[in-house]
Amino acid sequence: MGTEKRPTRRNSQGASTLPDLERENRDQLREVSVSPVRSASPSPGRHSKHSAFKQQRLPAWQPILTPYNVIPSLFVMAFVFIPLGVVFLIFSEQVQEYMFDYTTCLAEAPIGKFVSAPSGYGNVPFEWRRLSSIPTYAPRVSDEFSPAYMDAANLCEVRFKVEKEISGPVFQYYRLSNYYQNQRLYVKSVDWHQLKGQAVERADLEDCAPLQGDSIDTVYAFPPKDIAWPYDKNRYGVSEYKLEEIRPPPFWVKDKSLVNSDGTYKKIPNLSEDERFQNWMKVAGLPTFRKPYGRCTEDIPPGFYTVLISSTYEVESYGAKKAFVISNTSWIGGKNTFLGYAYIVAGTVFLALAIVFLARHLVAPRRLGDASFLSWNQEAAPITAVQ
C-alpha cells in the first residue's frame, strides 16, 4: 500500500533533526501493516525438541531469601526439632531392652556353674555357663518350636534378672555385628524361583552352593508367627518338588524334627509359613543389625530368666559378634536414642544460626536490592603492569 510522504523539519543549515527522523520512522511503521508469518517448525509435543521442558521455558519460582523470612524460619524449625527430639528420647527411654553378647560363651563360660559374664557383653549384668547335656526343661519338639537339632556340645545358658515388668508385646531378636550380609556373593547365592515353590534343576543352583554333600556346620531354625511383613511372605510358596526329588541343605540336617537319619526330608518345609527364615533372607544394609526371632503378647513380670542357646553359627573367624535381645516397643518403635539426639542437634544448629543471623542483621543491616553492591558499581582495583 502507498504511504504519504511528510515534509521533514530542518535546522538552520537545512538538515533534519534527530527527533524529527525518529518520529517520522514511527509514523511510517504504524501505517505499514505486516502480515504474520507462520513458523515452519513442528508443533511442540511430548517428544519434540521444541517442548517447553527441553527449551527450559517451564514456569519456575524461586524464593527470595531475606532476613525477614530466613530468621523466623530458622527459629520455627529450632522450636519444632528440639521438642520433638526430647519427646523421642523420653519414649525411647521407656523401652525396656536386654541385650546379651554370647559370642565367646563356649570358649569362656565354665561347664555346669553360672559365673558373671565380662562387663561390656550386655547392657545389664548377666551370668552364663556351658552345658554338657540338654536340660530336662528344654522345650520339646512341637509344631511351633523344634529344638531337636540342639547339640549338647554347643549349649550355652544365659541367666539374667528383670527388675521391672516388661509390658507386652515383647520381642526377641538376634543381633549380628560386623557381619556384612549385603556382600555381593552372599546376595547372589539364592534362587528366588525355588523359594517361591518352583521346581528348579540342580544345574541352575550353582550360585546356591554348598548343596547337600558339602561339610558345613551351621544351623537354621524355623520361626513362629507374626514377625515377618506380608510382602516378605508373598515371596515364598509351597514347593512343587516331590519328596523323593530333593534333599535338605547341609545346614538343616541336624534338625531331627525335619530330617530323617538318612538325610532325607520327613516332609517338605513350607517356606511361606517360615517367618524366621523369611526375616533372615531379607538382606540387611548395615554390618550391625538385628532381626525378629519371636514375639510374646503377654507381659513379663520381674524375676530371674534363663535362655538356652544352641550356639552353632560360627562368627569369630571373621571378627563378627552375635547377641540376643529381648525388648518391647513404643509408638516410635524400639529403643533408638540416635533419633532423639539427631533432632536435638539439628534444632540446636537452627537456633544458633538464627541467633547469628539476627545479630548480624541488627548490627549491620543490608538493604534489599542495594545497587552499590553490583560489580560494575564497585571501585576497580588498580592494574599494575608486570615486567
Automatic annotation (TrEMBL):
Keyword terms, alphabetized: Membrane, Transmembrane, Transmembrane helix
Region (Disordered): 1-54
Keyword Transport in record: no
Biased composition (Low complexity): 32-44
Location, primary (coarse class): membrane
Composition bias, Basic and acidic residues: 20-30
Coiled-coil portions: none
Similarity section: Belongs to the CDC50/LEM3 family.
Protein localization: Membrane
InterPro entries in UniProt: CDC50/LEM3_fam
One GO cellular component, as annotated: Golgi apparatus
UniProt signal peptide: none
Pfam family, one: CDC50
Classification via PANTHER family: CDC50, ISOFORM A, CELL CYCLE CONTROL PROTEIN 50
UniProt KW Transmembrane helix keyword: yes
Bilayer topology annotation: Multi-pass membrane protein
Protein name, as recorded: Uncharacterized protein
GO biological process assignments: phospholipid translocation
Transmembrane residue ranges: 70-91, 338-359
Superkingdom of origin: Eukaryota
